[in-house]
């Protein structure tokens, strides 16, 4: 069964907008905490978060939507820096720093932004096509 094409397009695109918004929030959190160490000697610092997407069928639309499947933490190892004045420094002055690479996060943020823009453009194009169709039907 084929439903309303405008509703289908906007439903797919809006699910993409929501997913990319969540992705941008997580990336922003990672960037904000890129230097957040523990508060006590030897404590673990902030751990990078990741977003995993999944495809979910939507029977009402007759299409699939993208959804955030899970938000998890990156289990990669922390780096260690020498900073004896830091409250999280151990007896030897070493501090564990977050496993966040700001450059990689900025690239991820840029990719999420472009995906967001692409989904937004889909909605704009669908609206334009509907308006053009209505105009064609109005002219004798």
From TrEMBL:
It comes from Xanthobacter aminoxidans. Keywords: Bacterial flagellum, Cell projection, Cilium, Flagellum. The keyword Iron does not apply. PROSITE patterns: FLAGELLA_BB_ROD. This is Flagellar basal-body rod protein FlgC. It comes from the Bacteria. NCBIfam families: FlgC. Residues 92-135 form the Flagellar basal-body/hook protein C-terminal domain. It holds the Pfam family Flg_bbr_C.
